[in-house]
What we know:
- This protein has helices at residues 2-11, 13-33, 58-73, 103-117, 151-166, 191-197, 201-210, 238-242, 256-259, 294-309, 324-354, 357-380, 387-425; strands spanning 46-52, 79-87, 90-97, 128-129, 138-145, 172-178, 183-189, 215-222, 225-231, 245-249, 252-255, 260-266, 283-288, 317-323.
- It is an alpha+beta fold.
- Strands 2-3-1-4 form a four-stranded antiparallel sheet.
- The longest helix is centred in the C-terminal third of the chain and has 39 residues, at 387-425.
Amino acid sequence: xxxxxxxxxxxxxxxxxxxxxxxxxxxxxxxxxxxxxxxxxxxxxxxxxxxxxxxxxxxxxxxxxxxxxxxxxxxxxxxxxxxxxxxxxxxxxxxxxxxxxxxxxxxxxxxxxxxxxxxxxxxxxxxxxxxxxxxxxxxxxxxxxxxxxxxxxxxxxxxxxxxxxxxxxxxxxxxxxxxxxxxxxxxxxxxxxxxxxxxxxxxxxxxxxxxxxxxxxxxxxxxxxxxxxxxxxxxxxxxxxxxxxxxxxxxxxxxxxxxxxxxxxxxxxxxxxxxxxxxxxxxxxxxxxxxxxxxxxxxxxxxxxxxxxxxxxxxxxxxxxxxxxxxxxxxxxxxxxxxxxxxxxxxxxxxxxxxxxxxxxxxxxxxxxxxxxxxxxxxxxxxxxxxxxxxxxxxxxxxxxxxxxxxxxxxxxxxxxxxxxxxxxx
Length: 426
């Protein structure tokens, strides 16, 4: 069988060359389309359901949130397992699907079932889906260098400008902010004054919520002109909160400033983000979507950062805290370097031992074709170009070289023996 295959190839050399060229071109095309990443994604095919109910104990969260969600999500088709985790004020439900299930089909199914399970949860509690990323989706971390801005101003700049701009980059699932202070109006209530004016704390909360809203009215026509009536009531300053009326006492309005004080402050924090031990910074984590090209997404994020940089205040710049593209480029450079080293080593060995340059060319030609064929199978089976797969290709290059040397040497020996036999006959 092997002999017939060799004879067929020798008789149809042009066809063999065309097949090799097509195989090489196909491999280059697959190499450009194949997702490039540094770390192989071994995470499970899962959808995360997150529910927040602040102030409740883990046992209450387990009984009233996690258990109803887990029991109702079990009927979704193609589910392999469901895991629930309850902690103080938060609930996480991990819905594990089979490996061949499309992640966006799975998210749609989970969302449909959540609409039904909503009625079983406490009033005002709404479960949400986690980002469509994986456990290795954190591809780029950055922070702001703003020596003239405090942490609250940096966090506001990150949340209301930088984050929204970077989320528009194709392939980005989420930009998670970290560090700094989230600004908020803080109302410090005096319980003695509440008792004096006979006002409960719930009354204060409801009144403040009701007075932070815009309302719409009907159209008013006058002198052949139409006017839209609107009530503007959103809070814009600390004084707006202080002047909200809560009740009346002997015909005199009782305002928020009469029962306490209003101040600007930061939300409760559970940790800080420190950069190189030099102090706290504010930044974000770019999370990549499922099955995207990490190298391509990182390049797009960096290009977007150049545009965002133009709109930042003077003295504010970006600095990368973690950039996976560096590891990706080093992995690719390692494979390229190995390929070049193998080609040089093979050329030297063949030329030294055989003194035949055509034999060296035969081995050199098969190296890039073999590597290109490897990327064809990577693309075919949906495997990304990562450290593991690229290392396998680098190791396989040595095997290809060894096989090529053995085959060329064997062919060279048989040709020499055939020439000796032919010479003896003459």
